[in-house]
Every structure is written in structure tokens, then in C-alpha cells.
Amino acid sequence: MLDLGLAVGHHLTIFALFGVLIVELVLVQKGMDDSAIKRVAGVDLWYGILAGVIVTFGFSRAVFAAKGWDYYQHNAIFWAKIAVFVVIGLLSVPPTLAYIRWRKPGSPTPPEAEIAGVRRLLWLEVALFALLPVLAAAMARGYGQMG
Question: Pick from 84, 108, 118, 132: most CB atoms within 10 A?
Fold first, then answer.
């Protein structure tokens, strides 16, 4: 039952994170006003919270669930999946910093070039996010075992 609960929690939070990412992409548009900036900053907070929950569920699954840590620690696909997740996380830092900067009292409307740059990073996150289920499916089928 633990294995199932951890798997369900992991998958649901991954779907939620993807939804939050799409909401950010929709909200970050040229001509953003203070209200839109406040909304996207709030959504971005959930992005960070969900990412932390995903890591917690994921490593709990790897350690405590059916296959166990021995399976995962020797699986190249697992480590590739972790690497992609880390890259996505690193790509999310500049948008978060932009939202913080844009929220400062008296800040001017974000320049269109800066908004376009944030949108490019969000799109790159979306593209990389698509790799996660591909890697997960391969790993679940036994690919990637080392040694």
C-alpha cells in the first residue's frame, strides 16, 4: 500500500506542477500590470512548493517503495530523469527572480524584452518537462540498469 500511495502522490504532484507551469506561461504576457505580476508571483510560489513535494515523494519512492534504492541507484535513466528535473529547476530561477523584481513597489512595467526572455525560459521548461514521462516509462520497463 505504501508503494501505491507514494506513486499516486508523486504522479499527482507532477501533474499539478505541470499545470502551474502552464498557468505561469499564460499569465506572463506583455503589458503585465501589478495585479498580473502579483498573480504570477503567487502561482510561482506554488511551483516551488510542488517541486519540493515531488522530490520528497520521488526519493521516498526510491528508498521505501517496492523496487528499493538498489534498483534506482544503478539506473542511468533514473539519474537522467533527476538531471532533467534539476535543469528544469535551475531554469525556473531567473523567472522567479524576475517576478520578485517586478513586484517591488514603484517598479516600472516589465520591459517587453524581459517578458519575452522569461517566456522563452518557461517554454524551455515545458519542452524539458516532456522528457520526464518518457524517461519514467523507460525506467519502469527496466531500461538503464548499470552494472
Answer: 118
